[in-house]
Amino acid sequence: MISCLILGGCQKKSDGVDINDKPVSLSDYRGKWVVINYWATWCEHCAHEMPELQALVKKYPDKVCVLGVNFDGATQDEIHKTQKKIGITYPLLQQLSLEKYGIDPIESLPVTFIFCPQGVLRATLHGPQTAEKIAQLTNLAASQ
To answer: Is 1 within the bounds of a domain?
Structure first.
């Protein structure tokens, strides 16, 4: 306990905040592939991609985690409506800071970042993705 106080506390630093204002840290997902998808409520391609990401989580629940990050600053109500309308169960975030991972600010949507189970960025994908493509990139299909 004393060493925690000396080192500035034991609290883990969060990378972002979910839609319920709870802190989120990517380190919580170590051991799984982490798929981070930036989307917006007005983005048609995003709306088509989100069910694919949901299918990925459903097929590989022990091997992959998807985090959807709202890009357009939508309200909690708007995000919850989108979540319910599309049937999304994976975590949706209001914000996520990726600068410490060497990722530049987002310039187009949708964009997806894939981190390996050790927490290293392995791919940046622009445009809508499919569950199958991500499963192939991460070798999830071969590990079943």
So the answer is: no
| 53 domain-assigned | yes
Residues 41-55: b if buried by 16+ CB within 10 A, e if exposed: bebeebbebbebbbe
- Both tokens of residue 32? 């799984």
Question: What is the distance between the alpha carbons of residues 115 and 82, in angstroms, rounded to a whole number?
Answer: 25
Decide if 127 contacts 38 (C-beta within 8 A): no
What pTM, to 2 d.p., does this model score?
0.87
Phi, psi of 19 (to 5 degrees): -70, -5
Close Cβ partners of 66 (under 8 Å, ≥ 6 residues apart): 34, 35, 36, 37, 53, 54, 56, 57, 90, 91
Continuous H helices in 44-115:
44-59, 76-86
Q: What is the pLDDT of residues 71-85, one digit of tens each?
A: 998 999 999 999 999
In a domain, 5, yes or no: no
Query: Considering only CA atoms, which of 114, 48, 122, 116 is closest in space to residue 82?
Result: 48
Which residue range is the domain that position 22 belongs to?
Answer: 14-143
The tally of domains found in the chain comes to: 1
